[in-house]
Design goal:
The chain contains three helices and no strands. The protein has helices at 12-37, 44-50, 52-74. The protein is an all-alpha fold and 75 residues long. It is elongated, with a radius of gyration of 18 Å.
Amino acid sequence: MATEPDSTRPPVLLVGATILFVVGVCAIAAMFVVAAVTSDAPPDALYGATLAAPLGLLLAVVYALQSGRRSRNKK
């Protein structure tokens, strides 16, 4: 007996993907700001934070594929 997911609760995977993508885009913007303001290289942590954007995009694609499969199986 499968229970229906709570429709009022936002999907965790989509929220996580959105947060990661926004963090990544902000890190990319910060790279440009650091390059424009100083002549120093950006910190290594900023390079790592930019990887959150493609990871968030990948999680969003996984969520879209899972939710599409769920709606097709309900018919």
